[in-house]
Amino acid sequence: MGGTDETLGRGTGPVRAYLGSFTSAGGRGVLAADVDPVTGALTVTGATVAVADPSYLALAGGVLYAVSETDPGAVAALAPGGPAPRPLGAPVPVDGAGPTHLAVAAGHLLTANYTSGSVTALPLGADGVPGPATAVLRHEGAGPVADRQAGPHAHQVLPDPSGRWVLTVDLGTDSVRVCALDPATGALRLHGETALRPGYGPRHLAFHPAGGHLYVVGELEPAVTVCRWDARAGELTPLAEIPLVDTDAAGPAYPSAVVVAPDGRFLWVAVRGTDTLAVLVLSPAGDEAIRSATVPCGGAWPRDLALDPSGRRLYAANERSGDVTWFDVDPETGTPVRAGSVEAPAVTCVVFG
C-alpha cells in the first residue's frame, strides 16, 4: 500500500505475532506466528495448550502473559521465543473468576476478572513471572440490562499514559473506575468512578496518543464515547457519544475492541453481530470523532482488533469463523482494505512483538 512513515507510523512492521484462542472451543491455546514485513501475512509456527482458554494476551519486558478465562481464573507467563511460546512455570491464581484482560503496570500484572467483577494485582519477579496476588479490588453495582448487568463485570484494566493511574472498565456497572496502584505493596485504591449511560455496557477503552482524551466502546449499545482525560487530577469527563452502526442495521451489534492510530487521525472499532469494522476520523485534538466508513471484518464475530506497530495494518481476530484477517489501512482515509487471512480456530486476540 502507499503512504509514508510520517502519516501512519515508522518501521517495517513486526516479525512475530501471538494469538490467543479458546481451548474449550477447539482452539490451539496460545499460538505464535511469523509476520511478513512486506505483505503483513501471518504464518503460524507453533502453539501451546498449557494455558486453558487464553482469551487475552499482553507482551511486556520480553515476557508474554495470558489470562486463563476459567473459574477459578489464572494468569500465566510464557517465553515468546521459539516456534511456540514456552510456559514459565504453572499458571497463577488471580483470586477471581473469568479474567478477560490483563496489563502490566508498576512492576505488577493486573487482570480484569469478568465473572467475579474484580481487578487483581500480582507482583512480577525479576524474571517476569507473577507471584501470588497482593490485592483484589472488588467492583460494586449493577445495570438495567437484567441478563448482562445483574452485577459488576470488569472487562478491561489499563494504565494511563502518565503512569499515575489504572483505569478499569466495567460492563455490569456502566462505569469506568480510576485507581491508584502502590508499586511497593501492589495495593489498589479506588480514586474515582465515572458513570456512563445506563445500559451502555462499556467493554474496552483506548487513549489518544496525545494523552488528553480517550474513547470508551459500549458492548450493549453499539457506540463509542469520547472522553476528556485529566491525568493530573485522575478525572474522566464524557463529551459525546457516536453510534457505530446505522439505525436501520439488521440484527444486534456488539462492539468489542477499539484501536487508535499512532498519529491520532483515526479510530477503529470491531463490531460483532454485524461483523464489521467501523472507521472514525478524529479531530486534531482528539476531542471529536465522526464515523466515516464501515467495512466487513473478513469473517464472523470479531472479538479483537489489533494494529501492527508500523500503523499500516489492522488484524481482526474473528472468533466464530476461526481466522485472523488482516487489512491494509488507506493512509488518507483510514479505511481498511482486506489483504489476507489465516486459519485460527476460536481465536480471541492478537498481539505483536
Strand proportion, as a percent range, falls in: over 45%
**pLDDT < 50 runs, ≥5 residues:** 1-13
Shape assignment: globular
Category by helix and strand content = mainly beta
Count the E strands: 29
User: What would you report as the Rg, rounded to the nearest angstrom?
Assistant: 19 Å
Describe the structure.
The protein has 353 residues and is mainly β. It contains one helix and 29 strands. The chain has one helix at 5-8; strands spanning 16-21, 30-35, 42-48, 57-60, 63-68, 74-79, 86-87, 92-93, 99-105, 108-113, 118-123, 135-138, 154-159, 166-170, 175-181, 188-195, 202-207, 213-218, 223-230, 235-243, 254-260, 266-272, 276-282, 289-296, 302-307, 313-318, 323-329, 336-343, 347-352. The strands form seven sheets. Strands 4, 5, 6, 7 and 8 form a five-stranded antiparallel beta sheet that branches. A four-stranded antiparallel beta sheet has the order 3-2-1-29, with no helix packed on it. Strands 9-10-11-12 form a four-stranded antiparallel beta sheet, with no helix packed on it. A hairpin with a 2-residue loop joins β4 (57-60) and β5 (63-68).
Keywords:
29 strands; globular; 353 residues; 5-stranded antiparallel beta sheet; 4-stranded antiparallel beta sheet; mainly beta
Q: Gist?
A:
The chain is mostly beta strands.
Layout of helices and strands:
Blueprint: H1 5-8, E1 16-21, E2 30-35, E3 42-48, E4 57-60, E5 63-68, E6 74-79, E7 86-87, E8 92-93, E9 99-105, E10 108-113, E11 118-123, E12 135-138, E13 154-159, E14 166-170, E15 175-181, E16 188-195, E17 202-207, E18 213-218, E19 223-230, E20 235-243, E21 254-260, E22 266-272, E23 276-282, E24 289-296, E25 302-307, E26 313-318, E27 323-329, E28 336-343, E29 347-352
Antiparallel strand pairs: 1-2, 1-29, 2-3, 4-5, 5-6, 6-7, 6-8, 9-10, 10-11, 11-12, 13-14, 14-15, 15-16, 17-18, 18-19, 19-20, 21-22, 22-23, 23-24, 25-26, 26-27, 27-28
